[in-house]
Amino acid sequence: MEHYGILSFVPTIVVVLLALMFRKTFEALVAGSIVGFLILAKLGFFDAFTDTMLKVMSDSTIGWIILVCGLFGSLIHLLVKSGGASAFADFLLRFVKNRRSALIVTWLLGLSIFIDDYLNALTVGSSMKKVTDKFKIPRELLAYIVDSTAAPICVLIPLSTWAIFIAGLLESEGLAEAGRGLQAYLLAIPFIIYAWVAALLVPMVAMGWVPPLGAMREAEARAKNGVLIPPGSEAISIKISEANPGDFKDGARRMPKIIHFVLPILVLIAATVYFEVDALKGIICAVFFTIGYYLIDNVMPFSKAMEEVFSGIKTMLFAMAIVIMSFVLKEVNDQLGLTNYIIELVSPWLNKAMLPAIAFVALGIITFSTGSFWGVYAIALPIIIPLAQSLEVNIWLSVGAVISAGAFGSHACFYGDATVLSASATGCNNMAHAMTQLPYALLAGAISFLIYLILGFTM
Q1: N or C: less crowded end of the chain, CB within 10 Å?
Q2: How far is it, in rounded angstroms, from Cα 439 to Cα 169?
Q3: Contact at 8 Å (CB) between 68 and 283?
Q4: CA angle at residue 428 from 441 to 65, to 5 degrees?
Q5: Burial, 363: exposed, middle or buried (Cβ in 10 Å; 0-12, 13-18, 19+)?
Q6: What φ, ψ does residue 241 adopt, rounded to 5°?
Q7: Own/partner pairs, 204-207, CB within 8 angstroms, 24+ separation
Q8: C-alpha closest to that of 444 among 201, 145, 214
Q9: Of 13-27, 128-142, 191-205, the least confident
Q10: What share of the chain is helix, strand, coil (3-state, %, to 5)?
Q11: For residue 425, how many C-alpha atoms fall within 13 Å in the half-sphere facing its CB?
């Protein structure tokens, strides 16, 4: 397998070190990518860098992400400016009486929006800030709970975008007949250990059974003094001021109702499901519906609604820039052969008992390093499935370990899309979110590794 050996790790190491030193994600990604192109192209690094930027920007996946994220920003702006988001938060506050219940409600809301991790993170994060702020909960803790109900929950539900993508891979690898990939996926769900552990860890943290770990202790101490938002959150935060009665001059009235929030969200979910769990088609339908609904119900004039649509897109630009640069870094890592190098490193350790645990760790490192989760599935499943069959390892245990690795990477990687969007929706510096979340992700990862070891030796 072709790779650059230990040099394959250098760009990722540069990104991690710079991000930790300066608490800047975008700049660290640019620096790491340039270092990678220096290794690959030497003096021609600048041409390689710009060519890869153009390649990434022309990729259909990036186009999908830009449209989805931008339009989610638009929808969130509309919901906040209508007063509907505030009315929804006020409704929840009737039932939320303390800190613990605020965190548990956030977790339960995240569990209920399982269709897509983008939809989950942006909807729950933006709607729960007012609730958690009342009880002096740091934004880092809110972001952790939101992020923990994104990918970890989506991989456990056979109706999510993640499940549908993986089901297609299972069909292509011959583990399921055409059209029956989701039925096969059900067999892997009990073995997606990381997702189960990460999801169940949240209520334990919310109830105080698991104490604040690492940087979360500092965030809790800061929040007790009334400072809920970590420094440096301005650039990534979806920050929207609610409209005042005098904001609309052409006849629209200000009557915030909970239905102004709930109905657009229901349309968003229903449209996403209707269009075969396509979040892009779902969010387009939701934005069109919300504009028309607000106009008919005299909530907001058309001119103001369109103004909020574009304002919402602008608030997502920094988050989108980070995700785009993470794809550039992925291209660098692919060209350096990072995945091939890691697989080559762990190959001598593979045997029947160790395959699930080693697959989880090795692929977890790859997903954390590259910020690519679905891409790793596409690369790893064609390798792990025949390997598991030849070693006579339980095939669904092996598939579950691969899916778990992607969920871990999505949860732990500080430039991964779910991490960035969770931070953006909750108004939290994404490095502060990543550093406070990492101890919990590593704890869940360590528990999962031990369980895979036990299962590998006993099944």
Answers
A1: N
A2: 31
A3: yes
A4: 80
A5: buried
A6: -90, 140
A7: 205/103, 205/141, 205/144, 205/145, 205/440, 206/100, 206/103, 206/104, 206/107, 206/145, 207/100, 207/104
A8: 201
A9: 13-27
A10: 75, 0, 25
A11: 33
The angle that helices 430-458 and 355-370 make with each other, rounded to 10 degrees, is 160
CA separation (Å) from 424 to 94, 151, 183, 188, 240? 26, 16, 35, 32, 12
DSSP secondary structure of 25-80: HHHHHHHHHHHHHHHHHGGGHHHHHHHHHHHHHT-HHHHHHHHHHHHHHHHHHHHH
Measured on CA atoms in the order 284, 290, 296, 298, is the torsion positive or negative?
negative
pLDDT tops 60 at residue 201? yes
Position 1 scores a pLDDT of 52
Measured CA to CA in angstroms, residue 20 lies from 25, 31, 404 at distances of 9, 13, 26
Nearest alpha-carbon partner for 31 in 54, 47, 13, 44: 13
Higher pLDDT, 282 or 238: 282
Q: Which amino acid is at 135?
A: F
The set of residues, in sequence order, having a beta carbon less than 8 Å from that of 160 and lying 6+ positions away, is 114, 115, 116, 117, 153, 154, 277
Query: Could you please report the per-residue DSSP string of 329-344?
Result: HHHHHHHHTHHHHHHH
Pair 124, 109: CB distance under 8 Å:
yes
Angle, in degrees to the nearest 10, between helices 302-315 and 317-336: 40
Q: Are 126 and 118 in contact (CB under 8 A)?
A: no
- C-alpha 130 chain-centroid distance: 21
Give CA–CA dist 97/272, Å, rounded.
Answer: 33
Nearest to 52 by CA among 30, 80, 71: 30
Q: Given pLDDT bands bounded at 50, 70 and 90, which one contains residue 246?
A: very low
What distance in Å separates the CA atoms of residue 11 and residue 336, rounded to the nearest whole number? 9
**Token digits for 449?**
């590794």
Any idea which residue has 């500092």 for tokens?
Answer: 218
Structural tokens at position 342: 């890691």
Asked if residues 334 and 369 have their Cβ atoms less than 8 Å apart, the reply is: no
Token pair belonging to 60: 């259909």
Residues 6 or more apart whose Cβ sits within 8 Å of residue 209: none
How many other CB atoms sit within 10 Å of the CB of residue 391? 14
- Evaluate whether 192 touches 443 at the Cβ level (below 8 Å): no
Q: If you search the block for the tokens 């269009």, which residue do you land on?
A: 275
Structure tokens belonging to residue 270: 């229903």
Round to whole Å and give the CA distance between 384 and 270: 35
Per-residue model confidence (pLDDT) at position 240? 56
Within the chain, how many helices (H) and strands (E) appear? 23, 0
